[in-house]
Amino acid sequence: MDLLQLFRHAEDTQTFTAGQTIFDAGDTQRVPASGPGAVMYDVLQGEVEISLNNKTIETLAPGEIFGELSLVDQSPRSATATAKTDCLLAPVNERRFLFMVQETPYFAIHVMSVLAARLRRRTEEALR
Amino acid sequence: MDLLQLFRHAEDTQTFTAGQTIFDAGDTQRVPASGPGAVMYDVLQGEVEISLNNKTIETLAPGEIFGELSLVDQSPRSATATAKTDCLLAPVNERRFLFMVQETPYFAIHVMSVLAARLRRRTEEALR
Fold this sequence. Notes:
By secondary structure, chain A is of the alpha+beta class. Chain A is about 35% helix and about 25% strand.
């Protein structure tokens, strides 16, 4: 599924400069600009680093999503997201997310497959 | 979301006796009885143990799902599932899964929240 196409025309994109924190592990902060509740992000341009306790967990490229955990379960951020390069992000708030799940079932399947891939990798790491 | 209600009237339930393997880590086996492709299961009665390399990862009770990873990403089973007690399961094949995602968006959200919870736990374990 090409999320770049899906989010390319998002009107409320956000830019971050290299090194800037997008959110911190433990954050429960709400983002007024995108409505109530947590947002997930689709990377439109640049790279984003996901880390915890100063260990890099993932590096994300355009077309990839992050921050979906807090959107799905309303818990604090499980990891820190930092702009690795200057980047352009499309935030997806809960309202838009639920709308997309309803209108585009393959978006739901895609989010599940992203979660599944991360869960497989994490399980391998946890039991190594 | 009460998956027990959703699957209580499934017609093709399967029973396993205590100690019986439901699937093994690495399995790519297809399940002809439930149509082509991998199935996930909803626990209707009893308990199921999820393990890898003889370490228990989770113990699942009625209303909980497992096996959703292979359904979502068509990869081999990431862990072994064993009946901890005699149990009754509702298998959900790909066709039914896609149907439910389309017809019941909150089913999709529920599956995502299950994946999210497991991913959070695994991330904590991996980085402990």
